[in-house]
Amino acid sequence: MKWQSRHLLGLEGVSAEEIRLILDTAGSFKEILERPIKKVPALRGITVANLFFEPSTRTRFSFELAEKRMSADSVSFSTATSSVKKGETLKDTVKNIEAMRVDMVVIRHSAAGAPHFLARCVDAAVINAGDGAHEHPTQALLDMMTLREKYGSLEGLRVVIVGDIAHSRVARSNIWGLRTMGASVIVCGPKTLLPLDVEQLGVDVSVNLDEALEGADVINVLRLQLERQTQGLLPSMREYNREYGITLQRLAGAKESLTIMHPGPINRGVEITPQVADGPYSVILDQVLNGVAVRMAVLFLLSGGEPKLT
After folding, report:
1. Fold classification of 16-136+289-303 (topology level)
2. Confidence band for 87, pLDDT divided at 50, 70 and 90
C-alpha cells in the first residue's frame, strides 16, 4: 500500500490500513535510530518549514530531529522574530515561505482548523502538529505505536484518557485513532472539563476515576493546564489531585500489564505522581523516542516515499 493523501491534518476519517502503514513505516525508521550512524538520505532534496505559532519543546524538537535524520533541508519559524508581529496574516506568511520553494509545512497553531486552511491555500504538503483544541495526529500515532509495541495489537484494549478532555487535541486524535484500530476508550475527568457532546465520539464517559480504571489496560494521563483553575473550572489543584491524580495507591489493584502514558510536559504532583511517572508502568520515555520515528514516517510518506525501507 502507498500513502494516498497529500496532507496529514488529523486522524478523523483516516482508515485502519493508513494508520497501520504509518506505524509499520515508523517501525522501520526506529531501527535506523538504533544504528551508530542515525541518518539516511530518504528526504534529500526536500525542504520542510516548521511553523510553530505556539510554544513547543517535544513536538518541535521531534520534527526537527526527524528531518535531520532523513537529510531534509529544514527551516524553523518563530513568531517572536517574524513578520507576524507586524500584522502579517497566516496565509501571507506561508505563501511567502512557499515562494521559497518549500515542499512541506509542519504547523502548530492555537486556532483550530489552521492546518486545514493552509492546505487549501498552498501547494506544499501540510502536517498538523497541533491545532487549538482540535487534533494532534502525530501524538496519537506515537501513542498507538508505543502500545502496539507492548501489546502486539490495539484490538480490544481498554484505554482510559483522564484529565482535561474539553481542551485536549491529544484526546481527540487518540479517540479517533484508537477506536479505528479496535480499542475501546473511556474518558474521565471533572464535568467542567468534559465536552457536552463527547459521547458522540463513540466513547464511554465517567466522572469517577476509580470506576473508570476498573479493568483498564492503558491510562493516558493528560496534562492539566494550570490556567483552568483561574478560569473557575476547578476548585483547586489539590482537589483535582485527590479526585483525578494517578497515584500508586490508586493503582494498587491494577493489572500487571498496565501502561501509563503522558504526552508531556508533566505537572508532577498534580495529574500524576513522580513515583508513577518514573515507575514500572510508565512508557513515557518510549513515547518520546517513538515520536521521532513516527514523524520520520509521516514526512517520508507524505513526500511520496515508498514504504519499503532498506
Report:
1. Rossmann fold (3.40.50)
2. low
What DSSP string runs through 220-287? EEPP--THHHHTTS-S-HHHHHHHH-B-TTTTTT--TT-EEE--S---BTTTB-HHHHTSTTB-HHHH
Grid look-up 551508530 returns 36
- Where residue 37 falls among pLDDT bands split at 50, 70, 90? very high
Task: Measure the N-to-C terminal CA separation of the chain; round to a whole number of Å.
Answer: 17
Contact (CB, 8 A) for 26 and 305? no
Range(s) within the chain of domains with CATH label 3.40.50.1370 = 16-136+289-303, 137-288
CA distance 157 to 279: 21
CB 228 within 8 A of CB 187: no
pLDDT for res 309: 47
Cβ atoms of 72 and 48 within 8 Å: the answer is yes
Q: Kindly calculate the radius of gyration of the chain based on its CA atoms and give it in whole angstroms.
A: 19
- The helix (H) or strand (E) run that includes residue 106 is strand 104-109
**Residue linked to cell 465520539:** 201
Query: What per-residue confidence (pLDDT) applies to 245?
Result: 96
Summarize pLDDT for 42-71 with one digit per residue, the tens: 999 999 999 998 888 899 999 999 999 999
State the Cα–Cα distance between residues 266 and 277, nearest whole angstrom.
9
Please write the tens of the pLDDT for every residue from 225-279: 776 666 778 878 889 999 999 999 999 989 999 999 999 999 999 999 999 999 9
CATH T-level fold of 137-288:
Rossmann fold (3.40.50)
